[in-house]
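Build the 3D complex.
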Amino acid sequence: MAVTAPTKPTAPAGFWAHLWDMMTTTDHKKIGIFYLAGSFFFFGLAGLMAVAIRLQLATPNGTLLVGDAYNQMLTMHGATMLFFFIIPAGLSGFGNFILPLMLGERDVALPRINSFAAWLWLFSGIIIYHSLFFGGAPDVGWTFYYPFSTTRPGHGTDLFMVGVILLGLSSLLGSANFAATVYNLRTKGLSLWKMPIFVWGIFATSMLSLFALAGITAASLLVYLDRHLGLTLFNPANGGDPVLFQQFFWFYSHPAVYIMLLPYLGIAAEVASTFAKKPVFGYRFMVFALVGIAVVGFLVWAHHMFTVGESLLFQLVFVFFTALVAVPTGVKIFSLLGTLWGGQLEFKTPLLFVMGFLFNFLLGGITGVMLAVVPFDYSVHDSYFVVAHFHNVLMAGSGFLAFAGLYYWWPKITGRTYSEQWGRLHFWFFLVGYLLTFMPQYVLGFLGMPRRYYTYPDGNYLWNEMNFVSTIGAILLAVGGIFWLIGMIDSFRRNQKAADNPWGGYTLEWATTSPPPAYNFAVRFPTSFPSERPLYDWPREGLKMQPDDPSHVHLPVPTVWPFMTALGLTVAGVGLALDWASSWPVILAGALVFVYSLFQWAITWEYDHPVEHHTVTGKSNAWVGMAWFIVSEIALFAILIAGYLYLRLTGAAVPPETRPPVWLALLNTFFLVTSSFVVHYAHHDLRLNRPNPFRFGLLITIILGFVFFLFQSYEFLNFHSHSSWQENVWTAAFFIIVGLHGLHVVIGGTGLSLVYYQALHRRLSPSQHGTLEAASMYWHLVDAVWLFIVSIFYLW
Amino acid sequence: MLRRSRVWAILLLGVAFALGDGGYNINILDPATSNNREVSKLLWWVMGFAAVIFVVVIGAMTYIVLKFKKRGNEVGEPPQFHGNDRLEITWTLIPFLIVCVIFGLTARGMFEISQVPPDAMPVKVTAHLFWWDFEYPEQGIRTSNELILPVNRPVNFEITSNEAGPAKPVIHSFRVASLAGTQDAIPGIVTTRWFKPEKEGVYYGQCAELCGASHSNMRFRVIVVSQAEFDRFVQGAKAFQATTPADPVAAKGQQLFNAQCTACHAINNTQYRSKIGPDLTFFGNRLTLGAGIWNNTPERLEAWIKNSPGMKPGSLMPPFPQLSAEDARSIAAYLESLKVEGLDFSKLPKF
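Done.
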């Protein structure tokens, strides 16, 4: 789409036109707004659930939400707040809108993948909420512990699991996209060490997602398979280990806590620097701290499991790293204070929320260290002390910063000013409401009240009083939420045009209009970046931004196929969650839409005009994106294989007498390894501009993959006929891991077929063939994983 | 203390709270066990460090707000400093040292509380949906939902989760807040925790892992009594005989019970030994009903017998609508007659 500049104001389009625009857009700003609007809506929804929970607990023996109804409410509250508010608002919402602007770019690296991920995110939410029509919402807690999650009737938990898996896919694609963007797309002269802290926050978070997300995928996949096929590694009845579920789950879900925090720490740094009119204090240490939190965050997951009876040594390792996380986290707090120190502070709403964050995050940090003291943790495990602690860091920590970001970038995103009065009221009600809700919950933790209780008896010492005060706090929070809504509506009604840089910000998002045009910038930036504050440095160095004619800018063409692909996947997912015997037409319909849309997407030009893209690394965006995505695939197999090795080495998993034959596996290895070489030479042919040998080579690769798949299917049917995964956990591990590899063969083969289809439609050229690079890299991964599988399942 | 807080609450909220089935002074720092004293000690250390950090950070924040608030009369821009390596290294190292000290203290504390005394009495705990089963392997006794222990004797709990009936076992968590920390009850795995109660009383126990509709109704009691009283309980329990009650109402109740209830419930020294439901051998000694939810009164017991899931969501005990009110009353009378004589726990303080 060529930009016609300047865009003339047109008559306001109708609802359907807006919807169509959203369905087809590849504009990172619209996608950012989509995530922001969605996630703040989910915040309101889950907030109302929290109020309902508090109303039930206002008095002893409440009757508003009893038993399963209460469990459904707490599950949906937790899952919505985590998966649909706090993770996406910072990472996907602000990340999408602000990050390319801060990098001085026109879009993200993979705009169409971005659109697909955004819709898949919303659809996975719809899938989970869909459960209300299929026997009730999930009631197993957002943690869906095994075996509890396999005992619940209805389809609520199935839809939850499918939703979580698709959400994970969306999150991985989003993260790979951000990582590729930061890697590949930075305006000339902007080195990694001159990026704003917020960009570092998004970058670190994306890496965390890519490395960790496999944990929850493995956990939810195995719960899903157990519910449908009895296929799992966790069932003690066949030698499995229920604690292994928790290892998988927390391997993601603890790093996820930092996924929920790091983007927001970036926001805090930006707001503090802008409102203090100073640079951030200790830029390098702030980056080290971000990366440090991300790295150490991987070594603390088992602190959620101190009470499962692991060995003393195992617990001690996790105690150390859990306490150690406090060090980089402390550095962040001190650096923020250093940034504010000596400034000229304007206490506008964003800064108020940052101050509120500092206070509350300090409390949350202190109680976090207290929880690392294991004997104390034993005493308050799963009590209200824990509830108060994680709300302290997530709600009054990250949540407050989400609002800081919302108010800070509101003028940039909407192009309108907001009223400070409503903003201040919102802040103070949130702060007081927050403290009133959660400080009594710390006390309840000392007084022994467990979490996830829908009722409590009348008259335990101070239980009635603390719960009542807590409910009053929740109502104040709800009132604060109403002020927030009024403030936003007020901003739209007054419709007062915001300045381009109302706060005097220093980063590049303030170098364009509010709201930014589709092409982002109508200027060329100087290529010298003395610090992370270009807008401060340039005027002082006499550097000027050169006006640039945006009419030569080419942006990606809108296309509906990413949306349709996500829709197809969603429909198939819903079908897969229900009873397969009756839902197979749904699965089939969804799969057809998915595959058809995918192939249409493949042959739709990304740009309507041949464009050469400069990338920082010189590699294509598809190559870099796939390289990051593959990290998550490796992690998924690594986690499952680690689980298998654990079961095998502890003697729980014993191979049956007759195993699948080795000769067939070796023959299959030959096919797969050959195909890897073939695709490599095909790639070579394309680069030498020999289209016919290239297409032939690609076809041979696909056929070899297909033959592999046929042999594998034969072996599965054969082995299944004389074995039972419900009796032998080795057999279960075999079917899960080898089966998952088979699924990857299908995915990889589909990827190659897409490239073949593109080749038939002449969409590839010796210089433009990122999809082939991505597909063949993925195919090599499928190959490499197979070599591991052969050695640990067939040869060992 | 209790009374004063209650008066305070009434004044503040204008709402009068009546004492109900609760009334427990639960306190995870109750010095009744060496475990809790160790926790308190660790907590003092951590709180000491926390207080220092808190004062420093909040002090700095207060100073920043008072001193650097923009007043409009500032000239030029504030000083543009980018950092101070020495300061930054200092505020990385000091927390690191604090963390190391806390780690050392924690490791020592964990080691201390994990040492099971050699004379500890074993008790097997099995968690069910939604109740608790206790076995004393040394004494050869089984009891459900109310565990009776001698004071000043260490007890080592072997904890697991299982279901004798058709339900699939799930993870629960064993917790007596005023005595010791939490320990998960996991199907297929036995975990352990020990404590030595040093104070007589009735202690409030709970499930601490989400397990279903009545997760919050899966309570129990640990009744700590003198050694003499415990011995009396053990002897009475071992010699227990469920004879036909003299009271004709209770005698009819026995017939009904044997016909209707023994598929799931066991009575000591009888042919009825099913472990699907709680053991009811000493039901007359029980303080509570429905897994520690209500005080044990005949009215509630009758209602419970007729419609357990109606009173406790998700209870696996089926409702008995076919029983008349009179039938329920006679079963209740029989159950209340099942007791070891001479034991009364109702006067013990509640923790």
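The radius of gyration of chain B is 27 Å.
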